[in-house]
Design brief:
The chain is of the alpha/beta class. 49% of the residues lie in helices and 17% in strands. It has ten helices and eight strands. The strands form two sheets. It has a five-stranded parallel β-sheet. It starts with a strand and ends with a helix. Bound molecules: cytidine-5'-monophosphate. It is found in: Cytoplasm.
Length: 222
């Protein structure tokens, strides 16, 4: 059994989840999208009319919440209290508020515990913001994916148009900048490159090129 642990961190819309999923497939290990967990809690908090600045209320809500990441033929599904919320957590409303929920210390402590429990004794590719620094500090390979704001916004814009959604490129740039700023400046586990992480700049690379680059790094380490 492959028990290798791989941490992939980086700013919003850098393509981490698409790449992490493919790397996990190639290595036949599981993929865990930690952003989906923060998104699911944000979705539930909005549904429950909870003030997203209220750390205690969010923590209590999380304690009462069952969160599962399930692999299916349609990719990874996010199951919250027996309901599939995989699509609900990708809405604009959730995307633009998730960083507020994710800045709270006690919310993060509970999430990190759950993420660490998910991977006990098995190989994993996990993506997020604090994986190499806090969730899997002993990961064998740590990648920090970066790309310019312009490039990340362009990719997201293209994706939105392909899905038939309305999309405004300038607004996307602003939202990505704002999310990065909150994630990078929060007090608890801010978005930062782990000292032993390898930076991969994806600005002029396509998905397959990024995947190959990461597989090369993993093979060098292994
Ligand atoms: O990766 P994704 O863009 O889905 O993450 C959504 C948000 O969740 C991030 O902008 C960040 O605020 C939060 N997050 C986090 N720590 C993680 C994963 C995500 O704070 N490990």
């Amino acid at each position: 059994m492959n028990t290798m642990t791989i941490a992939i961190d980086g700013p919003a819309a850098a393509g981490k989840s698409t790449v992490a999923k493919k790397v996990a497939e190639k290595l036949s290990i599981i993929y865990v999208d930690t952003g989906a967990m923060y998104r699911a809690l944000t979705w539930k908090a909005i549904q429950s009319n909870i003030n997203l600045e209220d750390e205690q209320a969010l923590t209590t809500l999380l304690e009462k919440t069952d969160l599962e990441l399930v692999q299916s033929d349609h990719g990874q599904r996010v199951i919250l209290d027996d309901t599939d919320v995989s699509d609900d957590i990708r809405t604009h409303e959730v995307t633009n508020q998730v960083s507020i929920v994710a800045k709270h210390k006690s919310v993060r402590e509970e999430m990190v515990k759950r993420q660490q429990d998910l991977v006990k004794k098995q190989g994993v590719v996990m993506d997020g913001r604090d994986i190499g620094t806090h969730v899997l500090p002993d990961a064998e390979v740590k990648i920090f994916m970066v790309a310019s704001v312009a490039e990340r916004a362009e990719r997201r814009h293209k994706e939105n148009l392909e899905k038939g959604y309305d999309s405004d490129l300038e607004q996307l740039k602003e939202e990505i900048r704002r999310r990065d700023e909150i994630d990078s400046n929060r007090e608890t586990a801010p978005l930062v490159k782990a000292e032993d992480a390898i930076e991969v700049d994806t600005t002029s690379l396509n998905i397959e090129q990024v995947v190959s680059k990461i597989i090369e790094i993993i093979e060098e380490k292994g």
